[in-house]
Amino acid sequence: VGDPQKMGMINDIHTVYTVKTTATDPNSSGPLKASSTVLRRFRDFVWLFDALVSNNPGIIVPPIPDKNLRHRFQEGFIAARRVALEFFLQKTVNHPMLTSDPDLKLFLESDAFGLEIKHRKHDSSHQTGWLANIAGPRFVETDEFFENRKIGLDTLEGQLKVLQSSLAAASKARRAMAQSLSELAEALQVLSTSDLSKPVRNTIERLAGLHRQAHQWALDQATNELESLITTVEAYARLTNSVRLTFNGRVKSWDKLQSALNHLRKVQANHEKIKRSCAPSDQSTALMYSLAELEEAERKTHDARNEFADVSKLIKAEFQRFDQEKVEDFKLSICAFVDGLTDRQRQIVKVWQEYYQVLQHLSKQNADASSVPNHPNNGTNNTNTGGSSNTNANDQNNDNSGNHIGGSDNKNTDNIGNHIHHSSDDSHDNNSGEAGQAVTAQPTSAHSISSSTGIVSQEPEPSSSKLPDTVSSPVEPGMGEQKDGHDGHDDSRDPSDQLPQDHQPLLLPDDAAVWADHASPPSPAPLSPHHPVPHLPAYEQDIH
């Protein structure tokens, strides 16, 4: 059943379905043609269902979908009805007894079906549901098998309705999830066009494509796999009503048997009355007629009793077939649903694993780019250990016993010393007339030197004349002079020794150690009047 189309005028718009029949075994000699194609509307299916129920009492006829005038032209409703009608015909033609019904053959093969059914009148005494119990005598069930089956059928119907409601809610939620995934994919696609780096844009764009795939998978599962399971549940929920019709067929056979018994009792009473009025040797016409009527009533009663027994036996066989088909159909539907769900999950896991590998590769690239090693300047490889002073300045001025204030007269630009002048805030006091002492540190190439007292900016100074040594006491060994090949600083505890030569901090001597033998800090030595005032930095101008 497929290809639903709207047809008819304004006052008679209806949906027509194309019914195609194809024999699975073309060589089989069945009652139906090997192939046929006809157009049928919904009311034609209703006619066929009623005809099959009327012609085959005791047989569970597959159900047809319910009528719905409100949503009959909606696309989703038409698709669900088409699936239900196809389920009805498949079950009917595969039934060993229904497949030989003449009305089924007429429905599947007739090209003038509308005209032919007008001349066909079905049994008007066919009654279904509660109306059968009202029209005839009340039927009291005496077979325990049918009583238990009725209770089980009511329980099954309630469970199927609950399952149907749950599956419909799950399908609706999955459709909503598919819509959310589609919106998220669109948002990520827009984000991938923003002003970001190219690797990040590519990663976001790939994530958007992944969510588009997830959207399609969720939509397929909601429309195909889940609705296939829902169709099976709905079909068997309707099939419970068809099973109840078999009970009505049994009740109908029982009513027929009761009518035959009542007629037989009346005929027997009439025959006894005629027989008493006639002599034993009298073979009158009335007596012969009464005897023939009695035999006919007994035959009909016997046939009705056999029919009731056959219908009861047939219903039991139909229940057994119903249980087997129910297990097979639900097994196929659930297996198809689980297999589809498993395949979807495998695909989802696979694409997420591929995306995770992409993220790992991008993270590794970023880590390699950020871990480029910083090579130190190998040009200045002379390390400064502890507080030892550079001896180059002493080699240039061997005739001077003290340290120099200001710049050096040496013109060798490769050995320019850094001169730092220390004095206390009370260096201008009159308590001492000694000249200030300058400490010559190791020359460095940096213009900004970090020390324990602050940051000192290095600027080149013009050379000045040599000044007399005004400090008679020698400098402590730990303050700049090496003693026995070792300095006064612990190299193992100084983290600055691990730095490159260009970044070694300048170590300043302790004022207390320099002026240990003096009562007060010395005053700076006066400059020669003939010596030009050197250009000193701001902090040295403040000291002098």
TrEMBL record:
Residues 422-431, 481-496 have a biased composition (Basic and acidic residues). GO terms for molecular function: phosphatidylinositol binding. Transmembrane segments: none annotated. Residues 1-114 form the PX domain. InterPro entries: AH/BAR_dom_sf, PX_dom, PX_dom_sf, Vps5_C. SMART domains: PX (SM00312). Residues 366-544 are annotated as: Disordered. Residues 521-535 have a biased composition (Pro residues). Residues 366-376, 439-473 have a biased composition (Polar residues). Residues 377-403, 497-511 have a biased composition (Low complexity). One of its GO terms (cellular component) is cytosol. GO terms for biological process: protein retention in Golgi apparatus; retrograde transport, endosome to Golgi. This is PX domain-containing protein. It comes from Puccinia coronata f. sp. avenae.
